[in-house]
Amino acid sequence: MTGTLVEALEAAKDVDGAVLLPPTSFAAQPGTCVVLRGPNGAGKTTLLRLVAGLTAPTAGTVTLDGVVADERDAATRDAVAALVGPPATYRDLTLRDHLTLVDATWGRDPATCDERVHAALDRWGVTHLDERFPHELSSGQAHLFHLSLTWFRPARLLVLDEPEQRLDDSRRLLLGRLVRERCAEGTTVVMACHDPAVTEAVADAVVDLPDAT
Ligand SMILES: Nc1ncnc2c1ncn2[C@@H]1O[C@H](COP(=O)(O)OP(=O)(O)OP(=O)(O)O)[C@@H](O)[C@H]1O
């Protein structure tokens, strides 16, 4: 079995012993997009954190190409790019600097770094903001920057928590196109989404989480 497999999963329980996620199982094949749906508090973010290996389940398993997902494991970090909550950014680095840093982290050729950084910002329509610092962006611009950072690192699995949030209609269409583009390149995408139009545009499969209340 290749791809991302989520089996008989139950997330970590909270301090009162309450289960944060109903029993859930699904498989996401390479090149496909699975969308998690459900009302506020249903457990979408919790499930995404488990899929990305950011949290360990108390029951069940999450495997990526047969290996248990664990962000402390280099194999998971190589495989996964996750945007679940805002990523760490640095007040003293511009958008361009952030991408240049990621580029260097992944050992890419410095001679061609500028081209890749330009293309990464251009993909999300934020090239004109390349000399801004993160705190000089609107919330939607910051989100587009976070998406460009997420897209920039190599990944076989993209994990995205409500990536449509704060985006205007044209950027939601762009998001749909870019998710489909990544799937066509063979990347697996697992994402939570509240927008039916975006879901319709990107989903190969949908996992519905029931209302937890
Ligand atoms: N850090 C935490 N400590 C305790 N309970 C938490 C924590 N984070 C989330 N929960 C609880 O876990 C359950 C699932 O929350 P989660 O954030 O996964 O839902 P969600 O489906 O992503 O919701 P939303 O659509 O509002 O983002 C909720 O009952 C929530 O209150």
CATH class: Alpha Beta
Q: What molecules are bound to this protein?
A: adenosine-5'-triphosphate
Placed side by side, the strands forming the largest sheet appear as 6-7-8-3-9
What is the total number of structural domains? 1
Please compute the radius of gyration using only Cα atoms: 17 Å
Instruction: State the end-to-end CA separation.
Output: 35 Å
- Bin the strand percentage: 15-25%
Please identify the structural class as seen in this structure.
Answer: alpha/beta
Sequence-ordered SSE layout with sheet pairings:
Blueprint lengths: L3 E7 L13 E5 L4 E5 L6 H8 L7 E6 L2 E2 L5 H6 E4 L11 H11 L7 H11 L15 H14 L4 E5 L7 H16 L3 E5 L3 H7 L2 E4 L5
Parallel strand pairs: 3-8, 3-9, 6-7, 7-8
Antiparallel strand pairs: 1-2, 1-4, 4-5
Helix pairs in contact: 3-4, 4-5, 6-7
The chain binds adenosine-5'-triphosphate.
The site of adenosine-5'-triphosphate (ATP) has 11 residues, from helix 1.
Keywords:
ATP-binding; 34% helix; ATP binding; five-stranded parallel sheet; globular; Rossmann fold; alpha/beta; ATP-binding cassette domain-containing protein; 213 residues; binds adenosine-5'-triphosphate; ABC_transporter-like_ATP-bd; four-stranded antiparallel sheet
Summarize this entry quickly:
The chain contains 7 helices and 9 strands.
Outline the structure in words.
By secondary structure, this protein is α/β, with parallel strands linked by helices. It has one domain: 3-Layer(aba) Sandwich (Rossmann fold), CATH 3.40.50.300. 34% of the residues lie in helices and 20% in strands. It has helices at residues 44-51, 74-79, 95-105, 113-123, 139-152, 169-184, 196-202; strands at 4-10, 24-28, 33-37, 59-64, 67-68, 80-83, 157-161, 188-192, 205-208. The strands form two sheets. Strands 6-7-8-3-9 form a five-stranded parallel sheet, sandwiched between helices. Strands 2-1-4-5 form a four-stranded antiparallel sheet. The model has no long low-confidence stretch (mean pLDDT 93). Bound molecules: adenosine-5'-triphosphate (ATP). Adenosine-5'-triphosphate binds at residues 14, 20, 38, 40-46, 212. Adenosine-5'-triphosphate (ATP) binds at residues 14, 20, 38, 40-46, 212.
